[in-house]
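Quarterly update from the structural biology core.
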Amino acid sequence: MHYLPHWKITAARQLAAELTGAGHPLALIGHSWGADTVLRAAGASDAEVFIVGADPVAKPVSRITARDGRPASAALVLHVDAEPPAYDRSDYVKAAGYLTGGGVPRAFRFADTRIAAVLNHWNFRGMMQTMGSDGLSAEDLLAGFPDRLNRTAG
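Predicted structure, tokenized:
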């Protein structure tokens, strides 16, 4: 597992290309502005990748990526959308990002799966564990991703 901050776009692209080039299954998970970064990293991969956007927000400096479509390498795109019962500071920061960055990147607006999480924007762990309508969480889907790739490749 590798962690990169959202501003390390070039490093994320290089790592994605390196890992998929070596035959490793790749899941890219981005929270908030990090979701914008994983979309760019997915573009560096020729192999299928699983992309998770945990309450994704387009970056203000990349308004154009908010309009970009699904990366060709995306085998599955998951959008976990935090819908808080009451707003806190993290939700106001998210709102500012929406206004300046252009909202949710298109790839997540048209995701394969959407999970609504009754949580605040800061609660990444909770978002990853919230179950969708099919009873599966992002963590469950991630756990099954390498097997799914093997079934489709075989």
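Helices lie at 9-21, 34-42, 89-101, 106-109, 124-129, 138-153.
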